Fold each of these.
Amino acid sequence: MKIYNTLTRRKEEFVPITPGKVGIYVCGPTVYDFIHIGNARPMIVFDTLRRYLEHKGYEVNYVSNFTDVDDKIIKRAIEENVDSSVISEKYIEECKKDMEALNVSPATTHPQATKEIPDMINLVNTLINKGHAYEKNGTVYFRTRSFNGYGKLSHKNIDDLESGHRAEAHQLKVSGEDEKEDPLDFVLWKPKKEGEPSWKSPWSEGRPGWHLECSCMAKKYIGGTLDIHAGGEDLIFPHHENEIAQSEAANDAEFARYWMHNAFLKINGDKMSKSLGNFFTVRDICNKYDPQVIRFFMLSAQYRTPLNFSEELVQDAAKGLDRILNGAEKLAGIAGKNNGKPLSPEEEKLLQEELPKFTDRFDEAMDDDLNTADAVSILFELIRFTNANTNENSSSEFAEKLYDTLFELSDKVLGIHIVRKADEIADDELSKIEAMISERTEAKKARNFARADEIRAELLDMGIIIEDTREGVKWKKA
């Protein structure tokens, strides 16, 4: 498998540090509100990476944090006149609900920053003792120039960065607000302000800087050097750059071997912004579309390709997903008959010679820097193959093997369910639908076609589409 490494700006063969095991750290959301649709892309993309690595036989330790102490959380808590922990715990639970809806598997560990403060204090102490950090009136800063590799991830020149900070630094020094030795130095620990959550430390009662949190949690729950560190491309600088600096300065070891970053998600061609009125939460979108459509849409483009979210493109994704679901439904119907027919010579040949090619080509696409766009196109080819080679006379064993391949690639690897969820419909509604279909069948037998058409229309009003097939009446949600 080859991965595009942001650190080296090229695709590299993925070789884990420990054979057969992979440690992945993905920066999670700051929990002050419902997660937005932009948050969903890295969640889905790197969940798919994890699934694919497991498909290849790796044991994956997948860690994704919740940032539960932050200015935005504190601001929200003050507005609602509650403790900041009330806000963070509420939205952690809401985030988990949205992740479940999108079929994002729970991480091996979901650490929370507020529960890891002692480790953060220890890391700051280590950096001070090594001369990489210093304290000024209760604030601890990282001495950026003390780390020779600063800028290696973002490929920024430290002298260019300094020139960009000169005007800002001069203004701060004039006003007496700046205590940094260098304008590039960043905060590791900050003293509390009135009404803010805080923890005791050797320097002040306060809280950690944002960059510090991920460095500590990654080391604690994965240990040593990470195989893969991932997140959105907006985190490359300064967040991931600062993580590298403080981690490698403290530990004298490489922080992460491979860095993966997904491209931005735009809304109708524009950057998502509340001021533009195009800011959507995952909850908003999932109330309008099936969450599986959203996941399918996100995987329709390779993760480093910018993705445009629009009504038209999501509807196209819904149609594409429906083709896969219909194909799976057909296979399940044939397999479920248990007709006991032996495999025909043609079927046996297809299973031995043709079917493995789909899995091989799917893996080839995914091995090429997680190219889910090409992998999805191979699913469509697999559906065309099954439609062309199965009918009511096919053996159930043949259909079952085709279904198993589709399930492995779509459901297990891409996280796209190929079974329509009947349990999304309440039992009483399900009984009503089935009773109406039975009544329609009897009406047709009695040649009361007007009543049969009325029932079809009534079902459509309920969001139910029915289809007359050789195997009987089939229905699905619109």
Amino acid sequence: MQKKSSMEKQLNELYRLESDYKNLYELCEMADSPEEINAIIDNLSNDAHNAKFVTLFREPADNSGAFLFIQAGAGGTEAQDWAQMLSRMYHRWVERHGFTIETVEEHFGDVAGIKSATYRITGERAYGWLKNEIGVHRLVRISPYNANGKRQTSFASVDVWPDIDDSIEIEINDKDLRIDTYRSSGAGGQHVNKTDSAVRITHLPTGIVVTCQNERSQFQNKDMAMKMLRSKLYELELQKRAEKENAAKANQKKIEWGSQIRNYVLYPYQLVKDVRTNVESTDSGAVLDGDLDEFMLASLSQE
């Protein structure tokens, strides 16, 4: 019911925008300040662009926040640096949309970059926007870590699952859980490495493992880990349904090395291309600075 109400609200907004555009044509003929009219048109254009996204959110979880997981592929420091570049890219995208992002867990590389990281993104429809970012991201560039200045190809994977609220019931039996505690590692203040506050939860029937170490207490870390586990089990159920309805859609959700969804080429030319939709951009700097909406819209339109 809530989704229908939100959709109706957006459709009504689109009708209002259409009326405003018609009125603006009349105002342009008598306007003393064309700059003001141009500014209004730009704002209306942005509103229409965002409304177009909302009409493509069809799943119940699309309106939820999201958990974002990034993992470096094989290749040591080079791949870990790429994983951190992706982390920065999504942080910038979050800022563009007025969402908030918090670190659940980060494992840093020995020299640079990150081995893996989990973030929680809070904002209306964050999962709907991000869900098609799942997959392998491939980078081609001149490596700053290669003394010979050779071209380097690196991989990192991205996984996303919805941050579901308590209104969606997920049954979890205590007997199906193995809960381990350990000492946190990395940056985090004086509490780090002092107590066994980090928590790892293994869901035995599915083999799903979630960890959290960035909260200040074991209780807080366990609470966040359980929230991630509920969300992952919900996403697993969505995948099972997708397999029954559409095998191709289910395959899209799998993360497999060598089956990248997007290529980021920084040398010998500048090009970012999504291999699923063929959408591309020659402004790789803007893309890596969080300008991802065009890619996301194309993926949502294919569903």
